[in-house]
Amino acid sequence: MNWIQPLEQWIEEADRVLVVSHIHPDGDAISSTLAMGTMLQAMGKQVVMVNESPLPKKFAFLPGADEVKQVHEVSETFERVVALDCADRARMGACCELIAPGASVVNIDHHATNDSFGTMNIVQPQAAATAEILYDWIDQSRVGWNEKLATHIYTGLLTDTGGFRYSNTSPKVLRQAAKLVEMGISFHQIADQVLETVTLPQLRLLKAALGTLQQTDDGLVAWMKLAKADIANASHDDLDGIVNYARNILGVDVGILFREEQPQTVKVSLRSREIVDVGRVAKQFGGGGHARAAGCTVQGTIAEAEASVLAEIRSQLRSEAR
Amino acid sequence: MNWIQPLEQWIEEADRVLVVSHIHPDGDAISSTLAMGTMLQAMGKQVVMVNESPLPKKFAFLPGADEVKQVHEVSETFERVVALDCADRARMGACCELIAPGASVVNIDHHATNDSFGTMNIVQPQAAATAEILYDWIDQSRVGWNEKLATHIYTGLLTDTGGFRYSNTSPKVLRQAAKLVEMGISFHQIADQVLETVTLPQLRLLKAALGTLQQTDDGLVAWMKLAKADIANASHDDLDGIVNYARNILGVDVGILFREEQPQTVKVSLRSREIVDVGRVAKQFGGGGHARAAGCTVQGTIAEAEASVLAEIRSQLRSEAR
Ligand SMILES: [Mn+2]
Ligand SMILES: [Mn+2]
């Protein structure tokens, strides 16, 4: 692969490297950060790994996770930066402030929307995860595999493919996973920690949401609501995934979670199976996303948001039926 | 593989074959039944596929699922039988009545406890699923792969490995999955249907159970309760998986679900991560299972069952700590 030699050359020339990823980091962002940090250290470089947001607790088990700093802990700026899993510069959030003007930035990512913001751009939209790209590098590098790296890469593959369930799960990803399992990683514990583990606040939110579950008569749309009181103290991470309980009901196409962020401000998460393009629905309300997962913010009460979003979905369902 | 030739020879000699699996069939049981039926039909044989229990709705999408009969629909007995995913004859339940005295039975299974009840026994405890064994056969057979067979086998691999998460997920299984994905199956839809889809009764039970969630002060044990009124009309399948919500809480080792089957009869489902051997706990109450998943029935009220099962777990935790 002809991007590996330039990447290794770039690293060769570096002394001190900043490794960053996107805000609210997911498993791929964190794992890529840790794998890159581990590789750079193995190549004798000084490394500072930083993220704008604290790492979700469920990733604390990853080897090296305690070395990832938060922005306010770092005061210097860097001439050499590796940005991972970021489609554009803004995705790094406040980490941008740690990048010296004129710094050399390596941009390694798999988002089709990547705007090539780097000095060197290794962007592979066909990859399921940034970890998949790093796998290819590690596999060819003289550093080679160790359990730590294998654990990082497996975690990135696992999370960005939704546990090998999303349609981006290619034969290549499954073969990479097979090789990593063969290396003796604790893949069962990784899946348990990362995909199965829930927190008490999550279960409390789930219970509250399930208490409000409603479904249209045709069964195609199911929705739940969380009032401001329910979500007090809930983190981004706690709320993640709750909307799927509505979407996952047998026969449902669109699942929705309405949550009252502020009085008169309702965040709407939308998921769909195959009929309704929820990206289009969200766009009607100034939001964004893609056909199967999207979100928007609606001004008004929960009841008002409910009425207008459901009306929009019904109108899409009607035009689909035509 | 030296079992394939005798198996194909046996099929060659057959005209009409009964294909059965175990009661309360899981994804592997159903998929193996369908794959075997499909292979036999392709080899020009008459096939009757039967199960004691109706197939869970979520498997209805599998090609050929509507051809699987229930026992009462079949009046003849068979001289040639293939039993799949059954550790012993009794696992077939009432399907045993369809086996003629002196019939030739092929027993294909992956349970280490298989008692070789067949005339021909193809038992591979190192296989993650019966579907894994059938994969090897299909891959070598002159019938060869088609999308229907690939869908069956993928479903069996997926379900018996808990979505490639359980420790039985071998590199071999992942490579088989890679090949099946390469054949163009709708693996994303399969995972969605089989692993993600929930029913409204399941969500109602979950909500009721979450409302009773308790945890010991040290956080190691979490439990939930379902009263008889909650589980009226609930199927085996609806209740499946609810106990995992207790086990999956961050920091929990043992998760328990107590459910009142009858007044004074409480079914107890136990799951654990790594400390407590719940098989041993269940055994104290006349139940069974293994270290990570077990169950028992306790006579008394839910409160009584709760007290005695928790006492037993505490005593195991104390002896572990020593
Ligand atoms: Mn990613
Ligand atoms: Mn099985």
TrEMBL record, chains A, B:
<protein>
    <submittedName>
        <fullName>Phosphoesterase RecJ domain-containing protein</fullName>
    </submittedName>
</protein>
<dbReference type="InterPro" id="IPR001667">
    <property type="entry name" value="DDH_dom"/>
</dbReference>
<dbReference type="InterPro" id="IPR038763">
    <property type="entry name" value="DHH_sf"/>
</dbReference>
<dbReference type="Pfam" id="PF02272">
    <property type="entry name" value="DHHA1"/>
</dbReference>
<dbReference type="Pfam" id="PF01368">
    <property type="entry name" value="DHH"/>
</dbReference>
<feature type="domain" description="DHHA1">
    <location>
        <begin position="231"/>
        <end position="317"/>
    </location>
</feature>
<dbReference type="GO" id="GO:0003676">
    <property type="term" value="F:nucleic acid binding"/>
</dbReference>
<dbReference type="InterPro" id="IPR051319">
    <property type="entry name" value="Oligoribo/pAp-PDE_c-di-AMP_PDE"/>
</dbReference>
<feature type="domain" description="DDH">
    <location>
        <begin position="16"/>
        <end position="156"/>
    </location>
</feature>
<dbReference type="InterPro" id="IPR003156">
    <property type="entry name" value="DHHA1_dom"/>
</dbReference>
